[in-house]
Amino acid sequence: MADYFAHESSFIDDGCQIGEGTKIWHFSHVMPGARIGRGCNIGQNVVISPQVVVGDNVKIQNNVSVYTGVILEDDVFCGPSTVFTNVINPRSHVPRKDEYRPTLVKRGATLGANSTIVCGHTIGCYAFVGAGSVVTEDVPDYALVGGNPGRVAGWMCDCGAKLAATAKPPAAARCSVCGSAYHGEGSGLVRSDGT
Residues with Cβ < 8 Å from 159, sequence gap 6 or more? Predict the structure, then answer.
């Protein structure tokens, strides 16, 4: 007996791995070679393609297709109708399966509803991609990105509160909600307490 839940309308192919406590809802499809961690929630009408890696405690809302080449680390949130791609120049008549570009979404990142993540990029830890944004380049850790193309518009705390509304990382910031402290390092932020 499986230690995860899959709604009777979903399709779970042989050869995939699904962690304990994960829930897979109506009309979703998990394909061979996909790996889904523990405690995930896979919404309605979601496709998890072959060789996709989904970490623990990931939330994938309705109508998301996670294509081969995508890695979602632990605690990632994909809002409804998030779009991933895996080929930069698709043509129906030209096979490009050997040209898939990887996309890495790091721990704790949030991808807002209807955001589009163009393949070949990394979304940093605890970054926040606003609803409807189009990501066309790497996103730094803790950055808030909005627009088309997506641009850094601020900085976010682990807890999801806004730290600053600047394009460049602040030299120092403290969350008004949870009290966590941060400082700018390179193109992103890091926790000042090292956690």
Answer: 175, 177, 178, 180
Helices marked H in the chain — which ranges? Answer: none
Residue that the structure tokens 């570009």 belong to: 101
Pairwise CA distance, residues 73 & 120, whole Å: 16
User: HSE (CB half, 13 Å, CA atoms) of 49?
Assistant: 13
* 113 DSSP 8-state letter: T
- State pLDDT tens for residues 161-188: 999 999 999 999 999 999 999 999 999 9
The residue to which tokens 């705390």 are assigned = 157
Contacts of 59 (CB under 8 A, 6+ apart): 40, 41, 43, 76, 77, 78
Q: How far is CA 33 from CA 54, 70, 125, in A?
A: 12, 13, 25
What's the predicted TM-score (pTM) here? 0.97
